[in-house]
Design goal:
Layout (H helix, E strand, L loop, with lengths): L10 E3 L9 E6 L7 E6 L6 H10 L7 E5 L2 E3 H13 L3 E4 L17 E3 L1 H6 L5 E2 L5 E3 L12 H17 L5 H7 L11 H6 L12 E5 L2 E7 L10 E9 L2 E8 L9 E5 L2 E5 L4 E6 L2 E7 L2 H8 L3 E6 L11 E4 L2 H12 L4
Parallel strand pairs: 3-4, 4-6, 6-8, 7-9
Antiparallel strand pairs: 1-5, 2-3, 10-11, 11-12, 12-13, 13-17, 14-15, 14-18, 16-17, 18-19
Helix pairs in contact: 1-2, 7-8
């Protein structure tokens, strides 16, 4: 259900907000769509959401990320900007969009997203920020009007409802309410993950499950797939004495490709004739046959990565990366030992 903030609650500003009204630009650090981002910096106004929608619909916004760099502004504008970001299915990231050496791996520079900007940030279908970035919350207030108790309760309820709508833990509002207009709550990394300000990313630890006469170990994706990042699940097992890796992909693949993986940085390769592909609804299942030595390397590793050598037009490399703990290694060992057939 859509929420509207009443006109009295107009301003949610930090004391040293950026002086210019929020503007939008687009920047790519390479010739690939995933290197592109919309850069949004400046003060959020009541008109900002409409200007953002117009910017996107005019075809200027390449990429799937919006970089936010703002010290706040209009509360209603921040909330509606968050909804617009969700409407277009964009990811949010904090950053100033600047790289001193113009290098992709150093971009974006650290950014600030405080006050009303923090509510806009919540609109991202995936939310990202680093320890160098600042995501800040404080108690709402109006610079021009006194907010009575009844009005404050109404606004509090609407903001909590917005947090729930965006999939954020409502405890964030509690911490913000403990600050005043001169202080700020900056969630640390643990809090950001606990409150879902950072959305889950990557893959869960391996879980064991009995199957036929044996055991399989599976690792599911935590969140949604992204552009050129379409691996949904990895399952390990043994079939007819051979260790296997089975990848579920969110792409309709029909041809095989060479496969590569690493175990603690050591690279291994598997030729396409050891890979089979089967349709799975709108996606595909890729089964990779490993040698016993290759399987053993995974059962001893503390980290693993893998990829397939597909063209970008098909879906890219379908990457998988996982830091492995003792339980992961034990699960993989059991899956490779107790064959399903």
């Amino acid at each position: 259900m859509k929420i509207f903030l009443t006109p009295i609650f107009v301003v949610l500003m930090s004391l040293h907000a950026f002086s210019e009204e929020m503007s939008f630009d687009n920047r790519c650090m390479g010739n690939a769509a995933e290197s592109c981002a919309i850069i949004a910096s400046g003060v959020i106004t009541k008109q900002t959401p409409d200007k953002f929608r117009e910017y996107i619909k005019s075809g200027f916004g390449d990429g799937q990320v919006i970089l936010l760099h703002s010290k706040g502004g209009n509360l209603a504008g921040g909330v509606e900007l968050g909804r617009a970001i969700r409407e277009f299915g964009l990811m949010t990231e904090i950053g100033d969009g600047v790289s001193p050496k113009d290098q992709f791996w150093e971009w974006p520079g650290a950014g600030v997203c405080e006050s009303a900007c923090a509510y806009a940030f919540m609109g991202g279908r995936r939310r990202i920020f680093d320890n160098e970035d600042k995501l800040g919350f404080h108690r709402f207030y109006s610079a021009t009007q006194n907010i009575d108790g009844d009005s404050a309760q109404v606004l509090s309820g609407l903001l909590v409802q917005y947090l729930v709508e965006m999939g954020v833990d409502a405890r964030v509002f509690t911490f913000a309410s403990q600050e005043n207009d001169r202080s700020m709550f900056y969630p640390n990394d643990a809090q950001a993950q606990e409150f879902a300000l950072k959305t889950p990313y990557g893959f869960d630890h391996f879980q064991l499950e009995p199957y036929k006469q044996g055991i399989v170990a599976y690792s599911k994706r935590k969140g949604d797939v992204d552009l050129y990042d379409l691996t949904m699940q990895l399952t390990a097992y043994c079939k007819r004495g051979s260790p296997k890796l089975l990848y579920l992909m969110a792409a309709g693949l029909t041809e095989t490709a060479n496969f590569a993986f690493s175990a603690d940085g050591k690279e291994y390769s598997v030729s396409a004739d050891k890979v089979t592909v089967k349709p799975a609804g709108d996606g595909a299942l890729l089964e990779v046959t490993l040698s016993k030595a290759q399987a053993t390397s995974l059962t001893r590793a503390t980290s693993m990565t893998s990829s397939f050598n597909y063209y970008r037009a098909i879906g890219g490399f379908f990457p998988y990366r996982k830091d492995l703990n003792d339980m992961d290694r034990q699960s993989l060992s059991a899956a490779f030992k107790f064959c399903i057939s």
